[in-house]
Design a protein that fits this description.
One of its GO terms (molecular function) is rRNA binding. Keywords: Protein biosynthesis, RNA-binding, rRNA-binding, tRNA-binding. Helices cover 38% and strands 21% of the residues. The protein is α+β, with helices and mostly antiparallel strands and 567 residues long. It folds into 4 domains: 157 residues, ibrinogen binding protein from staphylococcus aureus fold, CATH 2.30.310; 91 residues, no CATH class; 132 residues, Helix Hairpins, CATH 1.10.287; 117 residues, no CATH class. The strands form 6 sheets. A 6-stranded antiparallel sheet has the order 15-16-18-17-19-22, with helices on both faces. Strands 5-6-7-8-9 form a 5-stranded antiparallel sheet. A 4-stranded antiparallel sheet has the order 1-2-3-4. Strand 15 and strand 16 form a beta hairpin. The longest helix is centred in the C-terminal third of the chain and has 45 residues. The radius of gyration is 34 Å and the shape is elongated.
Length: 567
């Protein structure tokens, strides 16, 4: 279900309950289009995330640790000037639309009280965050500046007059009478048709929420009660993540009725729901945004090495004629007396093949012995080539495996993990190092991902080679268990137990499969072994280990299991 008007209604209630009368303690912009306002309310600091991302626009309280950049943006500087220490007086929604207004009271430099509104418009690619004066409606600043060339209806730039988006001629369902819903239900008894009618008349229904509401009305023996119960759920503070009928993962503020119960996860709040739902989606976007240079380098190097390997394989195919050159040289040496200068070919008995005749091409410019020597030279050249090409094939395959592993790590990484991956690529010569000590920033050690199995056992996951080496070779005890997807690039997984249960091993194996290149496969073989059986060969690349005495099991990586076990 989308972040529609109904979900916005529910989120506003949650924010009022948790943040109203709180004081702004910190403001920063961790990523482009996203803002974090830390509000201290009820003796607790809560990070309010405001996102104008075209795909993930939303408002929620987040528990995710988001980076505070060293240099604040101009928008953040404006907000700090007008909202630092401000009191959140109220949180409101405009007509069940996807617009949330945060009403702040703030004293200016002269000590006069000012009322400010921080408005978050959740409208896809037109989403925006706008700070303006409550009385005069004068815009202080926006996270996205929209000029008159871009939008003739309204400008969203500092100093302009704030105008709300064009209003739709639709009713607020929370202000409507029950009879207005029942009349529609009588006119459209089919719930899918009724859903379309609901969206045409009432504000804030997405396709999914309209279908859920319509289905509840049509299948209930008491329609009035079904309407009241459905809408009242949006005043509660609970959230759900579920597999929608179309197969896609979705979220909702109400218990979904068009899906099986076993596919539904319930959470204590809407914000917790969104943290879980958007965790992987947003991380991927942030990694793509911050790590685009790393991704480009790795993909280019992979393409180059795969092309090189193809050429080496073709060269190796040609070296299969080496023994033929040697045989022809030996035959010519044996029958030199039968060869005269000027001949271009000759047929001679092949004593390596029951003396069957073999045709041998000759150069009419060379003597018989020189012709024989020519074949021996070709043989030696091909023999040397076999050794060189074999070495190059092995080296190129190692490079491809390394880069393939790095590509998987970038795919699994959080934004803060990218610095260590960058250092690894620099150390391996794929990126140029910055040798200026003043400009070179030492990366902060990132932490492995933390999980808890069903019985409470700690499971740690390294998400890059540096983490993998540190986790497996330095921090893990020798009697802990180590897991890895078999023969596939992926993460090192450590179970912090010397006698884990079968259930814990199975869950850790699912995690290892998910944090590998085979995360979308149906069956993945995972090896597991005590850490004491792991060895790292001298001179091997980061993250590479060998092991013995392992056991294996096959698992199916499932995102819902990962979400349930993640701490």
């Amino acid at each position: 279900m989308a972040f529609d008007g109904l979900f916005t209604h529910a989120m506003v209630n949650e924010l009022v309950n948790q943040l109203k009368t709180g004081r702004v303690a910190k403001i920063y912009q961790p990523y482009q289009g996203e803002l974090v306002v830390t509000i201290r309310a009820n003796r607790k600091n809560r990070a309010l995330l405001l996102s104008s991302h075209p795909n993930y626009a939303r408002v929620q309280i987040t528990e995710q640790a988001l980076t505070n950049p060293a240099t604040p943006s101009n928008f953040v500087m404006s907000l700090r000037k007008h909202l630092d220490g401000a009191i959140l007086k109220d949180v409101t929604q405009i007509d069940n639309d996807r617009i949330i207004n945060l009403h702040f009271s703030h004293r200016n430099d002269l000590g006069d009280e000012e009322d400010m509104i921080l408005s978050i418009e959740i409208m896809g690619r037109r989403s925006n965050i706008i700070l303006y004066e409550s009385g005069s409606k004068r815009i202080i600043d926006t996270i996205k500046h929209i000029s008159s060339d871009q939008n003739r209806y309204r400008m969203l730039v500092p100093g302009a007059q704030y105008i709300t988006p064009p209003a739709q001629t639709l009713q607020n369902p929370f202000a409507a009478k029950i009879t207005e819903f029942t009349e529609l239900q009588k006119e459209f008894p089919n719930y899918e048709v009724l859903a379309q009618a609901l969206r045409s008349k009432f504000q804030g229904f997405s396709k999914d929420s309209a279908l859920e509401f319509a289905f509840s009305m049509v299948t209930s023996s008491n329609v009035d009660e079904a309407i009241t119960n459905y809408l009242s759920q949006y005043d509660a503070s609970a959230g759900f993540i579920y597999d929608a009928p179309n197969g896609k993962l979705s979220f909702s503020a109400v218990q979904p009725v068009l899906t099986e119960d076993e596919n539904v996860q319930q959470f204590n709040s809407l914000s917790e729901t969104l943290d879980r739902y958007f965790y992987e989606k947003v991380q991927r976007d942030r990694v793509q945004q911050r790590g685009h240079n790393l991704i480009r380098v790795v993909r280019n190097e992979l393409k180059k090495n795969r092309k090189k390997l193809k050429k080496l394989d073709q060269t190796m195919e040609q070296t299969h004629f080496a023994d033929t050159y040697r045989i022809k040289g030996e035959i010519l040496t044996t029958y030199l007396s039968q060869i005269t200068r000027g001949m271009t070919e000759i047929e001679l008995p092949n004593f390596y093949d029951d003396n069957k005749l073999i045709k041998i091409n000759l150069s009419n410019q060379l003597s018989p012995s020189k012709n024989a020597q020519k074949y021996f030279n070709k043989y030696q050249k091909e023999k040397n080539a076999v050794k060189y090409v074999t070495e190059q094939i092995s080296k190129t395959k190692n490079e491809i495996n390394f880069l393939d592993n790095i590509e998987t790590q970038i795919d699994l990484a959080k934004p803060e993990d990218l610095d260590e991956i960058k250092v690894e690529l620099e150390n391996e010569g794929y990126l140029k190092k910055n040798n200026n000590p003043k400009k070179r920033v030492k990366p902060v050690k990132s932490k492995p991902e933390l999980f808890k199995s069903s019985d409470g056992t700690t499971i740690l996951v390294g998400k890059n080679d540096t983490q993998n080496d540190r986790l497996t070779m330095k921090t893990a005890k020798k009697d802990f268990y180590w897991l890895h997807a078999k023969d596939i690039p992926g993460s090192h997984v450590i179970v912090e137990s010397n006698d884990p249960s079968e259930k814990t091993i199975e869950e850790a194996a699912s995690i290892a499969a998910y944090y590998s290149k085979a995360k979308n496969a149906t069956k993945v073989q995972v090896d597991y072994v005590p850490v004491k059986n792991i060895r790292k060969p001298n001179g091997s690349k980061p993250g590479f280990v060998i092991y013995e005495g392992q056991k294996s099991l096959k698992v199916t990586p499932k995102a819902e299991i990962i979400r349930q076990l993640m701490v």
